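A common beginner's mistake is to predict each chain separately and then try to dock the pieces by hand. The better habit, illustrated here, is to supply every component at once so that their relative placement is modeled jointly.
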Amino acid sequence: MVELVVFLVAGAICLGGAVGVIANRNPVHAALSLVATLFGIAVLFIAQEAHFLAAVQVIVYAGAIVILFLFVLMLLGVDRAEDLSIEPIRGQRVGAAIVGIGALALTLIAFASTSGEATGARPEPGAANEIAEGVADIDQIGESLFTDHLFAFEITSVLLVIAIVGAVMLSRRVRRDELVEDPLEVAHRAELEARAAAQASEGDAAPADAHDEEVQA
Amino acid sequence: MLAVAEVTPAWYLVLGSLIFTVGAVGLLVRRNPLVMFMCVELMLNAVTLTFVTFSRMLNDVHGTTVVVFVLVVAAAEVVVGLGIIVALLRKQPTATADDLTVLKG
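With all components supplied together, the output reads:
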């Protein structure tokens, strides 16, 4: 009974937030709707006894990712409302609705064909990856992470370093005195200037000839 | 007295596919690059919900471990994606998804 109420309330918050993300005209309101969805999913994690993941969900998503979204929105001042009544590409909404209904039908049919049961292999009794009763999920995730998934775990550190370097490179302003010119761009600009100078000196006497020479060159 | 329905893991999977569909439709419909990004987050969250549910259905802890990796990848993706969007919006404050073609080399 309790689980039913929890599921219904959290599921309604999730779905309402998800619809709010795509239906709100103002991006700030969309970000706040996203918070509702993320909290709802954290509650559903707790209902499924994944307590550690629920905490991480709130800290990483609501605490970091949505704050980053809001920070960008407010920093750049792009929080103006979008006019949703205009359809930029004709038939886009209809196409999106068809794709959505198709995707939903596909997953639900696949799901009904297994009569709601998961068809994967269950771990053998006593295996390391079996969820044991009475052991906190953080212990089990930690053990799994540092034994079976150790290599993937190390690779994520490389991924994070690449992401940090990429973000710094993308967002820093280049100071004028350390501006590095692109050699191709410099050559292109010199060529344009030379052409303009040649045209100016020749006047409009033989622009066609100049163009021909250029093509041959 | 109503018969109280039991919440099976199947309910969570259906909810996950619903949230995923909403995110996918939003990604196709909205034009603001930031809102499109939020829709990607919605889809990622729907997938993590199904991972946790399958983990419980199959009694296997690997499903929850994958969620940790999904979180890390999502964080990295948001950092780089928002960096690109900030660089774009600085030059052109009214940019929509169409203007992302300036990224072409």
